[in-house]
Amino acid sequence: MSATPPPRGRLQAGSGVALAAIIALLALISLVWTPHGGVPGSATALAEPGAAHWLGTDQTGRDVVSALMSATLTSLLLAWFATLVSLVVGIPLGTLLAARLGPGATRQLVLIGILPAALCLGAIFGGLRLQTTLSVFLAIGLPGAIAATIGSRSIMAPVLAAEYVAAARLAGLGWLGAGQRHVVPMVLPGLIALGLDLLAAALLIEVTLSFAGLGVDGSGLSLGTMLRDGQQLAQARPLLVVAPGGVAVVTALALLIAASGLRETRRGIA
Q1: What DSSP designation does 48 have?
Q2: Residue pair 128/99 in contact by the 8 Å Cβ criterion
């Protein structure tokens, strides 16, 4: 059993995490500072990009960079909390199924299943007039929990069935001792990668729902609402849609790249 992760996997995981962390840090800074406060009416509407406003202003006179920082924070927070709940529910269930039933569906089913289910649930909850933040949270969290269960089962099952885990149990370590020594180091990269996959999917779902008017409402600000509000002016001011759309796509891709790199490191220690 090799204990050295492939250098390419480590580089890939590190670069993906670094890019996502930079975007998240810039979003967090908006809690204490933005270039122009992000307040509507603080500047001339639809101003061209320049030294004063790097990406120009929107139709309300709000600085686009300031709005983008705040909107990214909103989208990331919604996606993060929904993903966290999905993992808290899904990983224990997946581990139980792996121990009782063995291997199940493969990881590839996770993202394929969560996207359409979440969008459909968002439409249902929107039709029921649920509070918008709760609607987004449930739309992401419910299918996310199922996806986390499927994904964690496929990660845990081969390790729990390994001969060295059985040998550790026979040696008297018990489930807790065997888990700490043999199971956790083997499955942790895969579980973190699963979480990054789900976070990327959750971010794109939040943006899509808000763009469709099923997520953050008109008084809120997220990447999806920025995309929606900028659609009518996209021809004259393309940055109003390119900027929020680009941030969403780049962040999701960074998370997926990091997840892929972590799986490379997992194969290197398997």
Answers
A1: P
A2: no
Distance of CA 219 to the CA centre of its chain: 24
Q: Which residue has the tokens 């499955």?
A: 187
Q: Which residues are paired to 63 by β-bridges?
A: 57
Position 181 pLDDT exceeds 90? no
Token pair listed for 268: 């290197």
**Better pLDDT: 83 or 36:** 83
pTM of model > 0.70 = yes
Question: What is the sign, positive or negative, of the torsion defined by CA atoms of 59, 63, 64, 66?
Answer: negative
- Give the span between the Cα atoms of 30 and 67, in whole angstroms: 9
Half-sphere exposure of 107 (CA within 13 A, CB side): 16
Overall average pLDDT of the 101-115 stretch: 66
Token code pair at residue 189: 């990269």
**What is the band of 27 on the pLDDT scale with cuts at 50, 70, 90?**
very high
- Angstrom distances, CA of residue 117 to CA of 24, 56, 147, 160: 27, 37, 11, 30
Closest CA to 73 of 38, 107, 110, 115: 38
| Helix (H), strand (E) at residue 175 | helix 174-178
Average pLDDT value for residue range 203-216: 89
**May I ask the CATH architecture of the domain 7-30+64-269?**
Orthogonal Bundle (1.10)
